């Protein structure tokens, strides 16, 4: 089976500073893949390069059989590769409904009503608050909204960048339960997280980044079996 997402020897940076140093990873159809690493490891830069927000210096990004290396962000979204960014980045002065509708702007616009029903079924709290301004919602509700907005585009692969960041322990549990459910519905996911234990519990495969390079690629069981890796890169 060909990978849904295939990244090979990807390098990029800002100005003259190299941030990604030859990163290669893959996500198979139907997988949850965890990308782990501390702050500053390069995880968000990798996401933004794959999403077309940062231009690569070298390497390739292939998605669903197409070459998306350096593609415009709209082309990436239209292909079905959707990122839910770190920090939620909802539009605070727009309502919940308006934020969700914007998620279907570049892709799946014709199926917006049905996808909106799906999002409201998945997140009943968003249905209750559809006319509320996004900026007045709690952090957990804004994270639901950000994921719901991503689902409006009918993603083939959903990149979740730090979805549990800043949430209470109870909401973290809810978030990972939701991720399990989305995966159970057939969605492929690249989960970019600092929450190591929860991520490894639901992922089929994992990568660990440090200083812009990959230090580990394998199964969660293989990662957890290595004392050196756990101590050096995961703080476990």
From TrEMBL:
Q: Name the UniProt key words of this record, in alphabetical order.
A: Amino-acid transport, ATP-binding, Cell membrane, Membrane, Nucleotide-binding, Transport
Name any one GO molecular function: branched-chain amino acid transmembrane transporter activity
**Please, which domain of life does this record's source organism belong to?**
Bacteria
Where does the record place the ABC transporter domain?
5-236
- What PANTHER family does its record include? HIGH-AFFINITY BRANCHED-CHAIN AMINO ACID TRANSPORT ATP-BINDING PROTEIN LIVF (PTHR43820:SF4)
Record's protein name: ABC transporter ATP-binding protein
Identify one Pfam family in the record. Answer: ABC_tran
CDD domains from the entry?
ABC_TM1139_LivF_branched
Q: Which InterPro entries match?
A: AAA+_ATPase, ABC_transporter-like_ATP-bd, ABC_transporter-like_CS, BCAA_Transport_ATP-bd_LivF, P-loop_NTPase
Q: What biological processes does GO assign it?
A: L-amino acid transport
Q: Which family does it belong to?
A: Belongs to the ABC transporter superfamily.
């Amino acid at each position: 089976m060909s990978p849904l997402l295939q990244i090979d020897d990807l390098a990029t940076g800002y100005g003259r500073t190299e941030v990604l140093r030859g990163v290669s990873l893959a996500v198979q159809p139907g997988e949850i893949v965890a990308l782990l690493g501390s702050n500053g490891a390069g995880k968000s830069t990798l996401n933004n390069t794959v999403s077309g927000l940062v231009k690569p210096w070298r390497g390739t990004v292939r998605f669903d059989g197409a070459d998306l290396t350096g593609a415009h962000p709209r082309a990436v979204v239209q292909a079905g590769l959707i990122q839910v960014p770190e920090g939620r980045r909802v539009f605070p002065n727009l309502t919940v409904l308006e934020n969700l509708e914007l998620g279907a702007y570049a892709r799946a616009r014709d199926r917006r009503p049905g996808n909106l029903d799906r999002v409201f079924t998945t997140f009943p709290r968003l249905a209750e608050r559809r006319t509320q301004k996004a900026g007045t919602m709690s952090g957990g509700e804004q994270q639901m909204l950000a994921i719901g907005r991503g689902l409006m585009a009918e993603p083939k692969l959903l990149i979740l960048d730090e979805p549990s960041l800043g949430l209470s322990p109870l909401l973290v549990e809810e978030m990972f339960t939701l991720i399990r459910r989305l995966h159970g519905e057939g969605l492929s996911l690249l989960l970019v997280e600092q929450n190591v234990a929860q991520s490894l519990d639901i992922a089929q495969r994992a990568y660990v980044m440090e200083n812009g390079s990959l230090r580990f690629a394998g199964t969660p069981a293989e990662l957890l079996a290595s004392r050196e890796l756990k101590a050096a890169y995961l703080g476990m």
